Amino acid sequence: MLSLGSGGGKSTKPSFVSYVTPEDMKIKEKEEGLRSKHPYLLPGEVVFCSANHVLKYTQEDSSQRGVYGTLLCTNFKIAFISDESASQETAPPFRNKLLSENDIPLTCVDNIYGVSDEKKKLIIGGQVKSKYPSKLIIQCKDLRVFHFSLTYAKEEEAKKIFQGIVHHSLEPKSLKCVFAFSYCETASPSQASRKSSLTLMFETKEDWSVELGRTKGNCKVSSANEDYVISEKLPQFFVVPFAVSDDDILRFLGKGIPFWCWSHHSGCALFKMACLPTIQEDGISQKYMHRMLDAVTQDQLCPVKIEDLSSCLPALQDLQLSYNKFKQLFLIDSTTEFWVSDMKWFSSLENSGWLEIIRQCLMKAVEIVDYLESAHTSVLIVEEHCSDLCCVLSSLVQIMLDPYYRTCSGFQSLIQKEWVAGGHSFLDRCNHLYQKEKEVPAPVFLLFLECVWQLLQQHAPAFQFSETYLTVLSDSINIPLFSTFLFNSQHHRDTAMKPGHPEAQRSPLNFPSVWDWSLQFDCKAQSLFTNPLYVEKPIQDKALRKTSHQKHQRQLSLPNTLSKPSPRKGFFKEETDNLKKIFLGKRISKWLNPTESSKELYESWQRKPLDYQGLLLPYLDGPSVRVWMQRYLRWVPEAQIFGGGSITTVNRVLELASEIQDLQKEVERRSCRMNSSTAWTQVYSGPPLSARLSSFPFTATHAWSFKPAIPSSIRQSLGSVSSLADKEDDDCQGSGVL
Amino acid sequence: MSCGLETYGLGEFGFRLKTQTMASASTPTYNSNNLENNSSKNASRESLRMEPLADVPQLPGEERITDKDIIYICPFNGAVKGKVSITNYRLFFKSFEVDPAMTLDVPLGVISRIEKMGGASSRGENSYGLDISCKDMRNLRFALKQEGHSRRDIFELLFRYAFPLSHSLQLFAFLSQEKFSENGWNVYNAILEYRRQGLPNNKWRITFVNEQYELCDTYPTVLMVPFKATDEDLRKVSAFRSRNRIPVVSWIHPVNQAVIMRCSQPLVGMSGKRNKDDERYLDIIREANGQTAKLTIYDARPNVNAVANKATGGGYEGEDAYQNAELVFLDIHNIHVMRESLKKLKDIVYPQVEETHWLSSLESTHWLEHIKLVLAGAIQVADKLSSGNSVVVHCSDGWDRTAQLTSLSMLMLDSYYRTMTGFQVLVQKEWISFGHKFSSRIGHGDKNHADADRSPIFVQFIDCVWQMTKQFPTAFEFNELFLMTILDNLYSCRFGTFLYNCESVRDNMEVKEKTVSLWSMINSENRKYINPFYTKESSRVLYPVASMRHLELWVSYYIRWNPRIRQQQQNQVEQRYMEMLALRDQYLKKLEELQISDSPRIANNSNSPASPTQLVHHVQTPL
Question: What backbone phi and psi angles, to 5 degrees, belong to A526?
Fold first, then answer.
């Protein structure tokens, strides 16, 4: 009956049902077996261990509420299956096809605490003794917090499940143990859906050519690294200035090469570059660098500005530290804790420094935008491996400047281009394998999504995708299935995809991409990914852009022929000192307030009416940089606004959008033009507006019996209000009372 | 090309050295009285420079006092030469130095203080002039030429007309000749409002005991009291309540008949006096809906302050005396604390927004924390009432914190108050008629800027309302502009609505007869103030979340003078939504046209909805 793998079947006669007749029990067992006890397993998923009679509970003030059920650990996830049947209407409105409400992918586990004798202790993998705690608190990377009590479970089962969970989620493992490998061997490839998508994967020469053509970039696609002959870190194909030869690339194994990211319509372009190894003799590297910079300026016909990220942005360790502090603010154990932490909310936020890091990244991006947009200067972003903050900045700059990247497919292509092909070490940064010493884990990609979210909340009509899309994308990082987030480079992925045993004659594994959204969500749920406010590009816009571009080229051609040879010496002379400092590891620390430096850009931008298809700049003053509420507060019951939140306006817009769509169809039908160009997406219909929580679509309404949240521990932190507070009430002044 | 290379030579930040251009973005996008703010471009600049300002907006009844050449020292863009015009209603400044012309339009009522800056011997540019502090979160600085005491006249005139009551002049509201199609004085009628709530009934009656303000001079004439209490009882109770402000009904729950009562503190004093009539009166209130086992008394003050009030004869309902009541302190601070808090807030947002430690600076003003406490108090009142228990709310005198709590909880409980008219009724009832001391708190026309009676209690209330509209963006019929317009006219003295401390004084001054109501203006052009997202939902209780996680600073009000602070993104969403609404209407119109042109043909066909093929067929049929 209970086919739960190990330990499930034998212990089916708990003593507490002894007053139930055997027939009753049979029926009950049958029902249970049929109903919900079966964990939903994906192809290739196997159950490692499980425990019955585990209590999942929530802490509210002094009272606890909970449900009994089975806790399992598989090679993919930790799952809790409630004994109570989940009725249809309480099913979450927005279901992930891979995961149920109480499933935690192993790679999504952030921290586990054990509670024994009222003491909460952080569990560290590899140090687990035979003792197990009576309660388990699992904090997830997507900010969910689960409380499980093992008190009522059989001792043997409890021990097993505890050790299993700790072993599989907190201890180092090899890449082959990641669930994607088991999944892909058994699941049928869904190649078709990927091919049809508009997302450019940047795995082929063609994709790069398309991108070069789209932005009218004046560079060449290089195949020097085909089959990874030069570097395993670099993609097989990339784009470099014409003057960069294959030998140049070979010289320092791809380091010191200006890789093309994007071209501005004025002709200047954005490049990125990894630092040269420091051992090189001055003369050689200097000369080499000159040639590379020369290559950049020659093709683009404009000067170049070098941005060394190490001198102006926080180090990866600081990033991780700051985010750890920040996320702690949302991992709340109890109602009491919520209200206590509410008192110092703003200063805690500030102390984490996370918002400040977001602001710094956006500021830096604005600065780069300023060079490209106002000064028509090419920018070369330099970072040690050019695969961390470099990706954040280059992507942000492109989003601000190019409306294409604010569409769904454009945004996905951008991530493919800058992050996946760009060789961001997703595996190491996400620390999926729990190999602590090896590499610095850091939420670099999340930082990028945070920055995009800031832009999105400030300029909603400029983006085709919604906040929900970004939140879901940030969750997908922690689902160990998608090739997008599982590897450190394309080479890494390609070698991993090769069949394990050569003699097995299998075809290479086929990992799904995260962009294959149908794997996670049905169409209805996916409709929440599009932003109903999005202002689409007007059709004539394309032509307009073309003409302005051509005009620009014409302007450029004139000074080009006149001035090319003369000023070169001077500019290199001065810059060499700088270069030396940058490339030989000496960091110049200079701080110029970027808001000041980009003031003119802002002013001229603000003077014009906001064009959602044009340049987009973030507002960076204190009040404008906010917390991504949907992502961070969606699981905190105390923070839910019953029937409120910004989701209510979004919903009104969705309704209106669908009404317009219907009208549009009707008009077309009546005027007999059947060539409908339906731009509107299907409208999500869920529970009525008033019954929703502000965290919609992430939490079901039923999750909490609703009662208004009344701040407890209201006793002030207003300690410093001085004598005024004790001062008599105004009312008692003047004409004497009584 | 060459220019680009030079740039390179200048070093990394070389091209930052461009000359500063004057930004025109400095004109605040939202002007307090935006209806008059059209800077005309057709007039030639030269002619305007010589003449007094030609296009000063002017309300009926507004009179020109003086014009002067002056330099406005804009905190965002530096000194701008221009002309100022002062009327009996406003200070209007215009400069043609920048394009488009920069204007300042400041009703004299918002001025809280005028100081002379520098002396005749002051050195340095623009060091001699006027420094004006405003009640609406900004300061204005003007510089004048030092020669010939050029400042004396303008200072004196400004001082005179900004503080008319200190100079035996009339407030502008009494001079205004404005006419509107709607009469805002008709918005609120106490008896009609009680009737809307289903009152009086067999438990509650209307009393006219205060018809001549003889029971309580700060209460309105019409009061709703327990049926079982006689007018004589009321008089006895009034002796035991501070300023005779006895417990009266503010609102009754339509289903469970629980009531919100408001009053002032009991006069317990040091000796712990008791009053049988008061005790009995509260028990009658408790019994009235038959469900309330213990009447909850919400004392808005912090416990210590309530205790301290005993020293001055006040206090709170003791356990012994009021056995069927439970007392809850809501910890909301007094008017002085609130005033200082807003002052601190001004310090961090004007003129420059605190950059490096924005969040902790914001926290240290405690402004949002006070907002949180007020909202939390109102939530408790609303929650209690929803569960069928009657409540009594008071603070010390029951005209500041009490008004905040009753009106906010009513806003949560009763969707009527979330409509355009309903909100006007709410303000008119809980604030104006029940004697919130607008005159003392705002200091209309009064020069004593340091008066300890001044406090932004009503601003705080409107802020709480704004917080609620943020959390429930579809639940309110009115928009942000509506709330800002209310606040602007709280100070402007253009309307009679917020003048004076209570109804008895207003009657004396014949405010309704001699001035125009703010609601007249708003209701005459109410389309401006409608929230496009509004979805009517009756009988829904709104519980905002009174957590710092959701409270935010009302940037578009408090920091609106700073041109670099964006106008809230909500506007973008709202604008986009309006565009979509327009698109929908276009389609509807088109459809209508099509229907008209189709109908004769469809009519003689069949009743079934035309399938596409049928329709194609029809159109192709030549007529």
Answer: -65, -25
What is residue A606's predicted lDDT score, i.e. its pLDDT? Answer: 81
Amino acid at B407: S
Asked if B478 and B422 touch (Cβ cutoff 8 Å), the reply is no
In order of A518, A674, B605, B616, B620, the CA distances from A668 in angstroms are 30, 6, 20, 11, 16
Annotate A94-153 with three-state secondary structure: CCCCCCCCCEEEHHHEEEEEEEECCEEEECCCCCCCCCCCCEEEEEECCCCEEEEECCCC
Residue in A597, A690, A709 closest to B547 by CB: A709
**What's the rounded Cα separation, in Å, for the pair B260 and B403?**
11
Instruction: Using CA atoms of A237, A242, A246, A248 in order, give the dihedral in degrees to the nearest 10.
Output: -120
Predicted confidence (pLDDT) per residue in A440-459, tens digit: 889 999 999 999 999 999 99
Instruction: Give the integer Cα–Cα distance in Å for B162 and B154.
Output: 12
On average, the pLDDT of chain B sits at: 87
Contacts of A566 in chain B (CB under 8 A): 2
**CB distance B584–A659 less than 8 Å?**
yes
Q: Which of B240, B336, B340, B565 to mutate to test the interface with A (most CBs of A within 10 A)?
A: B336
Handedness of CA A155, A157, A158, A159 (dihedral sign): positive
C-alpha pair distances (Å), B436 with each of A530, B110, B267, B511, B516? 48, 19, 20, 16, 20
Residue of B nearest to A300 (CA): B1
Q: For residue A537, is pLDDT > 70?
A: yes
User: Which amino acid appears at position B548 of this protein?
Assistant: M
C-alpha B126/C-alpha B144 separation (Å) is 7
pLDDT, tens digit (0-9, with 9 covering 90-100), for A656-705: 998 998 998 888 887 765 444 444 444 555 555 556 777 778 865 444 44
Pairing of strands B295-299, B391-394: parallel
Q: How far is CA B571 from CA A190, A374, B476, B558, in A?
A: 43, 28, 16, 16
Distance CA B243, CA B396 (A): 10
Q: What is the pLDDT of residues B483-537, one digit of tens each?
A: 999 999 999 999 999 999 999 999 999 999 999 999 999 999 999 999 999 999 8
3-state secondary structure of A273: strand
Distance CA B549, CA A341 (A): 10
- Residue A691 phi/psi, 5-degree rounding, is -95, 5
**B547 vs A376, A607, A711: nearest CB:** A711
Catalytic residue among B395, B464, B493, B502: B395
Is the Cβ pair B475, A633 closer than 8 Å? Answer: no
Chain centroid to CA B538: how far? 24
Give CA–CA dist B503/A297, Å, rounded: 77
pLDDT of residue A176: 86
Indicate the SS3 state at residue B529. Answer: helix
Question: Is a pLDDT exceeding 80 seen at residue A522?
Answer: yes
Query: How far does B493 lie from chain A, in Å, by closest CA?
Result: 24
> Hey, what are A161's tokens?
């499940």
Chain A: nearest CA to B77, how far in angstroms? 12
Q: With contacts defined as CB-CB under 8 Å, which chain B residues touch A607?
A: 23-25
**Chain B residue numbers touching A342 (CB-CB < 8 A):** 372, 547-549
Residue of higher predicted confidence among A196 and B237: B237
ipTM of this predicted structure:
0.86
A213 exposure class (CB count in 10 Å sphere: 0-12, 13-18, 19+): exposed
The angle, 0 to 180 degrees and rounded to 10, between the axes of the packed helices A354-373 and A599-607 is 70
**What pLDDT score was predicted for residue B37?**
39
Give residues with Cβ within 8 angstroms of A284, minimum separation 6: none
Active site residue B134: no
